[in-house]
Amino acid sequence: MIVSPLTGRFGADVTDIDLSRPLDPDELRGIEAAFAQHQVLSFRDQVLSIDEFEAFALQFGTFGDTPYITPMDGHPDVLRLLRQPDEQGPLFGSGWHSDWSFQEQPPSATLLYGVDIPPYGGDTAFISQTAAFAALSPAMQSLLRGLNGVHSARRSYGPRGTFGQSDPNRSMDIKGDESALRTLCHPMVRVHPITGVESLFVNEVYTIGIDGMADDEAHAILEFLFRHSRKIDFSCRVRWQKGTLTMWDNRVTQHYAIDDYAGFRREMWRITLAGEQPQ
Ligand code: SIN
Fold this sequence. Notes:
- The chain is α+β, with helices and mostly antiparallel strands.
- The protein has a single domain, classed as Double-stranded beta-helix.
- The chain has 6 helices and 15 strands.
- The chain has helices spanning about 25-40, 50-55, 130-135, 140-145, 155, 215-230, and strands at about 1-5, 10-15, 40-45, 80-85, 110-115, 125-130, 150, 185, 190, 200, 205-210, 235-240, 245-250, 255, 265-275.
- It has a 7-stranded mixed sheet, covered by helices on one side. The protein has a 3-stranded antiparallel sheet with strand order 12-6-14.
- Succinic acid binds near residues 93 and 99.
């Protein structure tokens, strides 16, 4: 297995490994170590059935809960992220977020497999929230360590949210409901359960406030953090090819599906792995 960093901070391409068969213990340990170090791994040139994709994912944990979106027939833990060439309307994933941060135990990792990829465009951008946190002043870090962010799915899946109503013209069957109005709190700085490294844990799509603060106070701090995190210095970008499988650590990264491939079809399969309560 060859691991080639994508940037000086995080992200790596992985080649010379076949993920369609069970990994041997050395390969598994090697991938786990590379994942802890690079946070985003793009395995290139993989030829996988849905069953093989699931089997690969299950070597790293158990499936997480996937709300609001109808999964693939016969595969309740796999989503098909599909966009047709002429499709209009909001693109799924096109906003900075970490997956399902409104859940009590948000996913530890997400795996996305490229089935049909536009000839150009449709990249996924990532931010390292450990890099973003490390670049803050000690005074700001210490303020944030004492705060909890308020997370909710309401802007995306609430009845008036982006995907709150079914849309017959959308390829993906997404439908929100009242449950998306719920809120819950997570520490704004979380400690990675394996590496022990601290990272920011707020995102523009799902973090709607700060526990115990007035809206205008919370807004000022969150807007600063969102702007800070978006700095190009903390980012990397995955250019997909058919057969690329990208796995990201959802505890320490945010991602963004870039909406720049109108006229081309894009199909990905997605699995999330169960995580723990952020600490
Ligand atoms: C996602 O947010 O999980 C989708 C990312 C993508 O389609 O590039």
